[in-house]
Amino acid sequence: MNARAPMAATALLAAMALFTAACGGSSKNDSRVTASAASRTVLPAASATTQRPASVSETLAVATAVPSVSTATPASATSVATVATAAPTATTAPPPPTATPVPPTPTAVPTSAYPMAATITALTTAFQWSPADVTIGAGGTVTWSWAGDTFHDLASSDGNFNPGFPDAPMKSWTGSVTFHSPGVYKYLCTVHTNSRTSMRGTITVR
């Protein structure tokens, strides 16, 4: 109901009371009843005031007046990276250098001033050794060789070495002997050792 209706009713009752008093047609009791009724009418009207609904603009104004809740902006990746960079980092001391062992210098193997190999050939037509005498270093090897129609053999003159020759003379043969100890070693062909031929020789080991 509109708020102006009670006010109009009150005014109407007051006017009626004045009209009755002026005409003298009402008693004192009637006046009380009228006044009481008027007061009873006015009081409920005053207490039952109906407020009109707020308009859309007022609602928007109230909503606008409410303080907004601020939203914290999360830290950006750049800020986090800056903080992480600013933190001091622990520095690890480098390990001490490791000493590299120096390999020992290899001992030079002594080399002989003499050849370590020699070859002696039997000259079949001349019945001689060529060369008859040779010199080698200790540990050296001497090789005897011949081939042809003449029989030869090989033996130690003093028995200081074994040439490894077969028991019977041969037309062709090749054999080697290694001499480890220094000394003089003599050899010969037992088939040709007469006065006309001299198939003898010497091996000197230094």
Beta-strand percentage range: 15-25%
Strand order of the largest sheet: 2-1-4-6
CATH superfamily of the domain at 117-205: Cupredoxins -  blue copper proteins
Question: Architecture of the domain at 117-205, according to CATH?
Answer: Sandwich
Describe the structure.
- There is one protein chain.
- The chain is an alpha/beta fold and 206 residues long.
- The protein is built from four helices and eight strands; from the N terminus they run H-H-H-H-E-E-E-E-E-E-E-E.
- The radius of gyration is 74 Å and the shape is rod-shaped.
- Among the domains are: 4-47; 117-205, Cupredoxins -  blue copper proteins (Immunoglobulin-like, Sandwich), CATH 2.60.40.
- The chain has a four-stranded mixed sheet, with no helix packed on it.
Q: Mind sketching the topology for me?
A:
Blueprint: H1 4-23, H2 28-47, H3 56-65, H4 77-86, E1 117-123, E2 128-130, E3 133-136, E4 140-146, E5 155-156, E6 173-179, E7 183-188, E8 200-205
Parallel strand pairs: 1-4, 3-8
Antiparallel strand pairs: 1-2, 4-6, 5-7, 7-8
Helix pairs in contact: 1-2
